[in-house]
Amino acid sequence: MASSDNSNNISTEKYRSYLNEEDDVKNIKWRYGAPPNYDVVNKLFEEGRTKIWSAGSVEEKVQNLVKTWEMEMFHKVNFDEYKTVDPLKYRFSLNGRKALSLEEKRKLGGGYNSLLQTSLPEKFRCFNPAEETVDSSHLAFTTAFPRGFALEIIQVYSGPPVIVYKFRHWGFMEGPFKGHSPTGEMVEFFGMAIFEVDENSKVVKVEFFYDRGELLGGLVKGAALSDDVVTTNKDVSSSCPFLSSNTG
Question: What pLDDT score does 120 carry?
Answer without folding.
Answer: 83
